[in-house]
Design a protein that fits this description.
Layout (H helix, E strand, L loop, with lengths): L7 H11 L8 H12 L10 E4 L37 E2 L8 H17 L5 H10 L5 E3 L7 E3 L7 H7 L8 E6 L14 E6 L14 E10 L3 H29 L6 H18 L7 E2 L1 E7 L2 E7 L3 E8 L4 E7 L8 H9 L3 E3 L9 E5 L6 E4 L5 E2 L1 H4 L8 E6 H7 L5 E8 L1 H4 L4 H13 L6 H19 L8 E7 L3
Antiparallel strand pairs: 1-15, 2-6, 3-4, 5-19, 6-7, 7-8, 7-9, 8-16, 9-10, 10-17, 11-12, 11-18, 13-14, 14-15, 18-19
Helix pairs in contact: 1-13, 3-5, 4-5, 6-7, 12-13
């Protein structure tokens, strides 16, 4: 579905009201917004490891574990720090709806595009922003209309882009939406994490000779899985940078050799070391799906059932092609099942493909038998003893080859990483076309608006499929792969 027909925030407002998660202008949601913004570092999601009693319960693919609730709402909507880490300034997602400030800014960007029908750019923000401000009224869909007055002053485009500059721009973007797992809205925890880092510095090696970028998503699961995803999103860029540093030093003195194998090894070692040091003794785990660009080389590393893909866009024909996409690391894959069973684990495959296959393991704290819906992950140490490993699958791509295979000419390359909260209800081709339209078409939406519309599509589908009782957390990160 095209972004043009979504009215993203409007439909989501209607769904949330119908789900009775909040009442417009109510004090509870105001407190929730405040708690979300104050707890900036934390993002929500629910469990891939569900409790199994006498039989595997049929429900949401990730299961719903009441133990994953918390007494406070957390959201990974933190803004980039004033002093950036040595690997660069990360773009971190903000919640597109429950972060009140971000919602107002997104609405301003979307409203201006709808009014003027042109791509919102940083260069046009000053002129366009002085002509119009965003409407502060959200009109919901359905038989009735509810007006929700956004708190604070209306935003012009300049203000909106400034507020969201740590979330995205014309070339990159990342966004999230907290899920709903039952109970009070104040008790929801977003376990999803994401980042885009461009330029991505390998210690002191910047972009003098070639572009360097890193993007990815990390989907926490099980009780306190957000601790593992938060640890991963925080430490992986720095650790990977330190491992790549000596490789790039060698590369700079011997550019004739291909160091892809050494970089492949560095990626695997990074995932394994993150897993070893993650706070998984008291929590669950997380997926990790990243795309690393080092000049013309793209390295796509994945562990779990989040996914990343690299795509091309032909400016002359508007054709979008998926060049590579990671697999979902599911326990029923022949080689994954063989490893698990060789390690003494058991793979449960639901009858008639109703739900996901799972690695069964016993939680040492509770004695309950759990089912993990993936064969690779960060954390999940109890399942690790039975063949669940953190080692990612790694693919190496070349931008020049991708352009050539797409027919040459005016070909662009971009990458997307997303958690299964989005992928379960929006197909890959639709995601690719929507993001390409935002990145490369002048009259297209801003990349943040494109991410917003995709998340809204998925959230609406979750609401319909689960009758408002469950919605997974959602996170997405996108970036051009320019040379």
């Amino acid at each position: 579905m095209s972004w043009r027909y979504l009215r993203s925030a409007d439909r989501l407002t209607a769904n949330l009201i119908n789900m009775k998660l909040f009442k417009p202008n109510g004090t509870n949601i105001t407190l929730f917004f405040a708690a979300s913004i104050a707890a900036a570092c934390s993002m929500p999601r629910i469990t891939d490891a569900e409790i199994v009693t006498t039989k595997i319960p049929v429900g949401p693919d990730d299961g719903v574990d009441s133990s994953s609730s918390s007494s406070s709402v957390t959201s990974s909507t933190a803004k980039a720090p004033a002093a950036c880490p040595n690997y660069g300034c990360p773009l971190l997602p903000r919640d597109m709806y429950f972060d009140e400030e971000a919602q107002a800014a997104l609405k301003a960007i979307r409203s201006l595009h709808e009014k003027y029908g042109s791509h919102v750019t940083s260069s046009s923000s000053s002129a366009a922003g002085t002509q119009s401000t965003a409407s502060a009224t959200v009109s919901t869909t359905g038989s009735s209309t509810v007006n929700e007055e956004l708190k604070g002053p209306e935003l012009n485009l300049t203000e909106a882009l400034e507020l969201l500059k740590t979330v995205g721009g014309q070339d990159q973007a990342t966004l999230t939406l907290i899920g709903y797992k039952g109970g009070n809205i104040e008790d929801q925890i977003n376990q999803d994490r994401a980042f885009v880092i461009s330029p991505y510095y390998i210690n002191n090696h910047g972009e003098e000779k070639k572009p360097q970028r890193l993007l990815g998503v990390f989907d926490g699961h099980a009780n306190k899985g957000e601790l593992v995803s938060e640890y991963t999103v925080t430490h992986l860029p720095e650790l990977l940078s330190s491992k790549l540093d000596p490789i790039l030093d060698t590369s700079s003195s011997d550019e004739g050799n291909d160091h892809s194998e050494a970089i492949h090894t560095a990626l695997v070692e990074t995932f394994v070391e993150i897993d070893k040091n993650a706070p998984a003794s008291q929590s669950g785990g997380c997926t990790a799906s990243i795309v690393l660009q080092l000049g013309p080389k793209l390295y796509v590393a994945n562990a779990g059932d989040s996914r990343s893909f690299v795509a091309t866009y032909d400016k002359s024909t508007s054709n979008v092609n998926i060049a590579y996409i990671t697999r979902e690391d599911k326990p029923d894959l022949p080689e994954e099942r063989a490893r698990v069973e060789r390690m003494g684990g058991q793979v449960y495959i639901p009858p008639q493909s109703r739900g996901s296959s799972r690695v069964l393991f016993v939680d040492k704290k509770t004695g309950n038998t759990n089912g993990l819906a993936m064969s690779r992950s960060i954390g999940d140490w109890d399942a690790a003893e039975l063949g669940v490993i953190p080692d990612p699958t790694v693919a190496v791509l070349d931008v020049f080859d991708l352009v050539k295979n797409a027919g040459g000419g005016d070909i662009e390359v971009f990458a997307v990483s997303a958690t299964d909260g989005l992928l379960d209800f929006v197909d890959i081709d639709s995601i690719a076309k929507t993001i390409a339209h935002s990145l490369y078409v002048d009259e297209g939406p801003h990349p943040l608006s494109a991410c917003e519309s995709l998340i809204t599509t998925a959230a609406t589908a979750w609401w319909k499929a689960k009758d408002g009782r469950y919605r997974d957390d959602i996170a997405i990160a996108v970036s051009k792969m320019n040379l």
